[in-house]
């Protein structure tokens, strides 16, 4: 292959390589941001926990009223294990629930569920 053809081949591949690198970088940045989210951020994020769609939570805007207000959770008998089970798959305790099974359907990761549980137990 002569030099001109080599240059064209390299130039033809360069945009594809650059797009791959940029794609990996943006994926990594998104994963880093996701890993750094607090339980409150996950709970309030409309693409993640979206707890405010159904629950009133102190500090949240446009809260729903489908589910109970999330206040005094420890006083209401919730410990970490019970609350985690509720968020993981509420249909186990109540087959008629409309609460999404955040763990079972992989809406939230295990770590994200733990962060949300820790946040809600502070309410």
Task: Write structural notes for this entry.
The protein has 123 residues and is an all-alpha fold. It has helices at residues 3-36, 39-44, 80-88, 110-120. The chain has two domains: 1-36; 38-123, Cytochrome c-like domain (Cytochrome Bc1 Complex, Chain D, domain 2, Orthogonal Bundle), CATH 1.10.760. Helix content is 49%, strand content 0%. The N and C termini lie far apart (69 Å). The model has no long low-confidence stretch (mean pLDDT 83).
Look at the helices and sheets and give the structural class.
mainly alpha
Strand content: under 5%
The separation of the N and C termini measures: 69 Å
What CATH architecture label of the largest domain applies?
A: Orthogonal Bundle
Count of individual domains: 2
Q: Percent range for helical residues? A: 40-55%
Number of DSSP E strands: 0
- Radius of gyration based on Cα positions: 22 Å
* CATH homology group of the largest domain: Cytochrome c-like domain
Shape: globular
CATH topology of the largest domain: Cytochrome Bc1 Complex, Chain D, domain 2
Number of helices: 4
| Low-confidence residue ranges | none
> Can you summarize the main beta sheet?
none
The chain-level mean pLDDT equals 83
Oligomeric state of the chains? single chain
The string of secondary-structure elements, in order, is HHHH
């Amino acid at each position: 292959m002569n030099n001109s053809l080599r240059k064209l081949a390299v130039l033809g591949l360069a945009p594809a390589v650059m797009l791959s690198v940029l794609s990996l970088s943006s994926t990594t940045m998104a994963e880093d941001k996701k890993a750094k989210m607090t339980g409150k951020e996950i709970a309030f994020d409309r693409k993640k926990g979206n707890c405010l769609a159904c629950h009133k939570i102190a500090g949240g805007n446009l809260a729903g009223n489908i589910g109970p207000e999330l206040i005094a959770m420890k006083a209401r008998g919730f410990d970490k294990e019970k609350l985690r089970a509720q968020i993981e798959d509420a249909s186990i305790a109540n087959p008629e629930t409309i609460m999404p099974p955040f763990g079972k359907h992989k809406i939230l990761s295990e770590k994200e569920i733990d962060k949300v549980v820790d946040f809600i137990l502070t309410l």
